[in-house]
Write a structure and sequence with these properties.
This protein has about 300 residues and is of the alpha/beta class. The protein has three domains: about 70 residues, Arc Repressor Mutant, subunit A (Orthogonal Bundle), CATH 1.10.10.10; about 120 residues, Periplasmic binding protein-like II (D-Maltodextrin-Binding Protein, domain 2); about 100 residues, D-Maltodextrin-Binding Protein, domain 2. About 45% of the residues lie in helices and about 25% in strands. The protein contains twelve helices and twelve strands. The strands form three sheets. Strands 3, 4, 5, 6, 7, 10, 11 and 12 form an eight-stranded mixed β-sheet that branches. Strands 1-2 form a two-stranded antiparallel sheet. Helix 2 crosses helix 4, helix 2 packs across helix 5 and helix 3 crosses helix 4. The longest helix has 27 residues.
């Protein structure tokens, strides 16, 4: 009972420091992000572990990671930190001041072509709201949503978890070919050709929509190269190493030395916002989600 009482009286700041250590995977980087000394971070973690009664993190040559016990409690700790942030934002909103922190997850095409303009316009209206961006692939974004790392995220449904989904836009899936490819002059690229053409692909966990577009035709793609970097794929296609499949948004606004063709049969993905719970979302998270929805409606 004594230990349970100690847990209830812990400072939320200790939880914030622990979350920073887990996020950055390093005591040094967490200290820099929090504006405190590394010894202060180390002391805080040690104090937290004494109070909670077991080790939360392990230190190694490759950095810091959670212990099995730490993995179990970190979602609850993030929940407390998030609730503390929501309380601060609610109190500020009562005073008519918009403040807070919003963590947003995104994949490359949105991070490059939408987010800079979205954030620029949002910060003009809400200068007191800080935004932190987490950029990865579909599986990264889904993990961040499920474990509470981000408050909202751009997704391409279906998602693994159950979230409140706000559809934003439909985005065509296109084939990209070297400009001197024999099929570059076609009006459409037959999906069946991926069974013989050398395909440059992202890993399967990062590429479910383009893979689904191919496999829906009942063929097995001839995957020649695999990389997680969208722009590396484009560069490889430009150099004649094969063909690939890309969302149209990723290709927009740039003059790549490739031919981009609609697929036959055509395919697309839905770009949407996902929020773990719109009802329980902070004021700042709701403000950003409303702004994103309005921005996309005006600019698509």
């Amino acid at each position: 009972m004594k230990r349970i009482h100690e847990l209830s009286s812990m400072s939320v700041n200790k939880y914030k420091i622990l979350c920073a250590v887990v996020e950055y995977g390093s005591l040094t980087r967490a200290a820099a992000a929090m504006g405190i000394t590394q010894s202060g971070v180390s002391h805080t973690i040690a104090s937290l572990e004494r109070e909670i009664g077991f080790l939360i993190i392990k230190r190694g040559h490759s950095g810091v990671r959670l212990t099995p016990e730490g993995e179990i409690i970190i979602p609850a700790i993030r929940g407390i930190v998030n609730s503390s942030e929501q309380l601060k934002q609610l109190a500020a909103s009562i005073h008519g001041v918009a403040i807070g922190n919003v963590r947003i997850g995104t994949f490359t095409s949105v991070a490059v072509h939408w987010l800079p303009q979205i954030i620029r316009e949002f910060q003009k209206e809400y200068p007191g709201i800080n935004i932190k961006i987490y950029s990865g692939d579909y599986s990264d974004v889904d993990s961040w949503l499920s474990d509470g790392t981000v408050d909202l995220a751009f997704v391409a449904p279906p998602c693994n978890g159950k979230y409140d989904i706000i559809p934003l836009s439909e985005d065509r899936i296109l084939a990209i070919l070297p400009k001197d490819h024999p099929m570059a002059s076609y009006s459409r690229f037959p999906v069946s050709a991926f069974s013989t053409e050398a395909l440059i692909s992202m890993p399967e966990s990062s590429d479910q929509h383009t893979r689904r577009a191919i496999e829906a035709s009942g063929i097995v793609p001839n995957v020649k190269y695999t990389t997680k970097d969208d722009y590396a794929i484009i560069a490889m296609v430009e150099n004649g190493l094969g063909v690939s499949v890309m969302p149209e948004l990723l290709l927009s606004g740039r003059n790549y030395n490739v031919a981009a063709l609609e697929l036959d049969p055509p395919a697309s993905r839905t770009i949407a916002l996902a929020i773990p719970s719109l009802v329980n979302a902070s004021q700042a998270t709701r403000a950003l989600s409303n702004h994103i929805k309005s921005w996309v409606e005006k600019n698509r």
